[in-house]
Structure formats: C-alpha cells, structure tokens
Design brief:
It is a single chain. The protein is an alpha/beta fold and about 280 residues long. The protein contains 11 helices and 12 strands. Helix 7 runs parallel beside helix 11.
C-alpha cells in the first residue's frame, strides 16, 4: 500500500501486515481461532476449498497462493490425522509453508493417536517454528457435528463401552492456539496436551445432556461392526469406528494440564458447555 506524506509529493510505502492462514477456518476450532485473531486486529486468511484463494489438502498446486503474504499458520487436517496419508500431506505442506516464509506453524493433533504422532514428526522435520496442540474429544462434537442428530433423537449409540474421556471445550483449544500463534518465543518447540477438568463416561455425558435439555437422552453401547454400518449408511468414513475404539481404550483416561499451563486458568466443564449449548436451542425437537 502507498500513501503520500502531508505537504509533499513524496510517496512512502507501508508494508502489508502478514496474515495468519487458518486451515479449516469454518470448522469447530478454526472458526473460533479466526474470530479471536480478528478480534485482536490480526489479519486472517481462511484456508478452505471455498476460500479466496482456495485451499485443498488434495490440491497442493494451490498451496502457494494460499500461503502468499502469510507468516504463520494454524494447521488442522480433515478428516483426521489418524487417516492414511495424513502424515505425508502434513510434511509436504509444512515444507511448502517454510519455503514460502510462513515458518510459525501450530498443529492441532490428537491425544493417544500413533498416526497423529507421525504427522507431528513430519511437521517438525520441515524446519518450522512449531507448536503441537494435542486435544481430547471436543465437547462440541455433540452439538456441531458427529453426534448432533443423536442427541436430538435422544439416543447416543457408540462402540465405546464403559470408556471415560476428559472432554475439552473448543473455545479452550482456540484460546491455546491463539496464544501460541501470538508468542514467537514461549511456545516454539512445545507440545501441549489439553483436556477438560474431569473424566466422564458416555453414560455420564448423556446424563449431563439430559439435565441441560430437560429430556431423557440415553447412551447405548454398540459393537464396532454395528457402528460401521451406521457410518456407511450416512456416507461417513468407516475408519472412524476403529479410531473411536482405539483412542477410547483407556490411553487418554487421565487429565492433563495444557490449558492451565498456557492460559493460567482452569478449562471449562462439560456441564457448563451443555447448559450454554442447550440455551441456543440447537437440541430442540
């Protein structure tokens, strides 16, 4: 951008402020990160197939345009880092980002996912100034994606048996990501594991949702094969059934303190999330 100085014909040049590329900027964490960055006055570019310019994990020829004028990136991967080939795409993108001058990369990863660890390593090998944020299951899975219709129907059927999970709120994740993106010293080379403040079984989740909505919502355990059939019927990847079974085998059945370490406060409880979500009418039938 150029402008003329007062009382002079001399023109000075004002450099554009580099943007932050938010991949998956319409998703559960991405849109929250984008909103918080904008609220702080920081330029944001949304990385999605409908973005300008478009970003598609399966179209690397378009990555350069998405990275032009960007100095940092929030990296989320769809459908999940545990899916085959994700680590290779993450590595290729990270190298492209560093080459384009966007060295500051914050990756959303998953707790207890071996395949996600491979993607983390590919990102680190790129030479980026990296931060990894490993998350437990999102609270918002129950009102923004996977299980919304199940909650509305009053039955949450999953192959999770009596597993417990420290569900974490997407706003807490976004706050951690924004903090990491905004600090070029404290968070570089760090891996943060995030969880909510308590462990919950899916039966307890159903009870919290029942309390928040004022109607009975049940949890029904089903077999992995039965759940695969449900995924097929709804056009969703069957790999989700295996992923759910794997990460809910007890490996994540403990609390971690990443939210407290980065933000200096406690994470939000599932009951608070459920009460606020219910007040929006999202689960009304």
């Amino acid at each position: 951008m150029t402008q003329k100085t007062p009382n002079s014909n001399q023109t000075t040049t004002t450099a554009a402020v580099p943007a932050t590329l938010v991949i998956g900027g319409h998703g559960k964490t991405g849109r929250r990160v984008a909103a918080k960055l904008r609220a702080d006055g920081r330029p944001v570019r949304i990385g999605s197939r409908v973005g300008e310019p478009a970003f598609d994990w399966n179209a690397p020829a378009g990555w350069a345009a998405a990275l032009d004028g960007v100095d940092r990136v929030y990296v989320t991967y769809h459908p999940d880092l545990a899916f085959p080939g994700a680590d290779e795409q993450i590595g290729a993108f990270a190298r492209a980002a560093v080459a384009a001058g966007a060295r500051r990369l914050v990756l959303l990863s998953g707790r207890g996912e071996e395949a996600a660890r491979r993607a983390e390593e590919r990102l680190k090998e790129s030479g980026a100034d990296w931060t990894v944020v490993r998350s437990s299951w999102f609270d918002q899975n129950f009102d923004e994606s996977f299980f919304l219709e199940s909650v509305r129907a009053g039955v949450i059927a999953l192959p999770t048996a009596d597993a417990v999970e420290p569900f974490v709120d997407a706003d807490d994740i976004a706050d951690v990501v924004v903090a990491a993106l905004g600090d070029d010293r404290r968070h570089i080379g760090r891996t943060y594991e995030l969880s909510g403040p308590r462990l919950l079984s899916f039966e307890e989740v159903a009870a919290e949702l029942s309390k928040a909505t004022g109607r009975h919502i049940a949890y029904v355990p089903v077999s992995g094969e039965a759940y695969r059939a449900v995924l097929r019927e709804n056009g969703l990847p069957e790999e989700f059934a295996e992923l759910f079974t794997t990460i809910l085998d007890g490996r994540n059945a403990h609390l971690v303190d990443g939210v407290q370490e980065v933000l200096g406060r406690q994470p939000r409880d599932f009951a608070d999330y459920a009460r606020e979500a219910a007040a929006t009418g999202v689960w009304d039938v």
